[in-house]
Amino acid sequence: MAESNFVDYVKIYCRSGKGGRGSTHMRRAKYVPNGGPDGGDGGRGGHIILRGNRNYWTLLHLKYDRHALAGHGASGSKNRSFGKDGEDKIIEVPCGTVVYNAETGEYLCDVTEHGQEVILLKGGRGGQGNWHFKTATRQAPRFAQPGEPMQEMTVILELKLLADVGLVGFPNAGKSTLLSAVSSAKPKIANYPFTTLEPNLGIVSYHDNKSFVMADIPGIIEGASAGKGLGLRFLRHIERNSLLLFMIPADSDDIRKEYDILLNELRTFNPEMLDKQRVLAITKSDMLDQELMDEIEPTLPENIPHIFISSISGLGISVLKDTLWTELNKDSNKIEAIVHRPKDKDALHQELKEMGEDKELNSGNEDAGNDIEDVEDLEDFEYEEEDWEEDDQ
Ligand SMILES: Nc1nc2c(ncn2[C@@H]2O[C@H](COP(=O)(O)OP(=O)(O)OP(=O)(O)O)[C@@H](O)[C@H]2O)c(=O)[nH]1
Ligand SMILES: [Mg+2]
């Protein structure tokens, strides 16, 4: 696939920070013999956090920064001093980002709002210092807790754009022309199929400062679900829309058949797509006269609103906006939180390959973000005995 700035799929490696070790320090000041344990707690390891940011439209920035490493917690020290917490690593993502485990395909989380933060991997808790372990019978515990280990995971971030109305149609149906007529978006328009290669969003303004978002995606053809044309991968950008606007040109040989093919491709992609409310626009209707419209009308699919439109002459455009607005505001069409299905583990490798994301990611620079001196194996979460620590203060 050609390189493009519209990146909606990326694989990255994430690693949280280890917790710092608790200290085993014994207080030994002048005139205070056997001062007792005063080792402080280790700091918490840094989290890996995803944060929704409306200033990002794609995942492009992550292609150049595929290793997200949080800092480790520092060890505790004498005088019950806490170790410093490791630095959290914040990954900014566009609203509409969905995250999957790249090895198992498991769905992990979804970031939809600006400023929303989700902890993807927790940093390890710091270990407790030895003063916590002092008891009546054990006055001088010479051990402390090590910090909890870090966590690592390779994840797939997938963008599913957030829009209200999604445009569905064959190539050349006039989808981009409509978007440019009703919003200030400037998608490429041309008289050949597959002009649009990546999704475009436009804000459609309606009366009284109201507005809604329309998503124009590449055209769909029969067999798209089997990979024909651009396939169905862009359909995920209208998966969250509450309303689908089907667009079929007035000069189509068989409007009904075209409609059924589109429905069928959507069903193959995700059967839930058919639960969405649909509106049908017969595009390029400037080519029709009233007589032809009357002839076509009875052949159109029943049970869904249809409108004859022309983005060029303006015919039907304001009725279309009214219809879309009405449908969008019907309670029955409000979309509940969509259910993200896990990815099929067996198909995952093939998918990563197709998306050009199958390269192994190593764990990056092991020491990055690591600001503690002693990192010897804190992995096993057990109490450890340590020698009495001398302090010559
Ligand atoms: N006469 C007429 N032509 C139109 C109308 N709308 C679009 N067209 C023409 O139809 C052709 C295709 O329009 P596009 O908007 O690029 O079609 P698309 O559905 O976005 O096509 P893809 O991006 O390839 O999927 C262009 O030559 C447009 O000028 C219309 O209302 N009337
Ligand atoms: Mg287009």
Supply the key terms:
393 residues, alpha/beta, Spo0b-associated Gtp-binding Protein, Chain: A, Rossmann fold, 2 domains, six-stranded mixed sheet, five-stranded mixed sheet, 6 helices, 16 strands, disordered C terminus, binds guanosine-5'-triphosphate, binds magnesium ion
Report on this structure.
Strand 13 (243-249), helix 3 and strand 14 form a beta-alpha-beta unit. This protein is 14% helix and 21% strand. The chain is an alpha/beta fold and 393 residues long. The protein has helices spanning 60-63, 175-182, 255-269, 290-296, 317-328, 345-354, and strands spanning 9-15, 48-52, 67-69, 89-93, 97-101, 107-111, 117-121, 143-144, 152-159, 165-169, 200-206, 210-216, 243-249, 277-283, 306-308, 384-385. It folds into two domains: 1-159, GTP1/OBG domain (Spo0b-associated Gtp-binding Protein, Chain: A, Distorted Sandwich); 165-343, P-loop containing nucleotide triphosphate hydrolases (Rossmann fold). It has six helices and 16 strands. The strands form four sheets. It has a six-stranded mixed β-sheet, with helices on both faces. It has a five-stranded mixed β-sheet with strand order 3-1-9-5-6. Guanosine-5'-triphosphate binds at residues 169, 171-177, 189-191, 193-196, 218-219, 283-284, 286-287, 310-312.
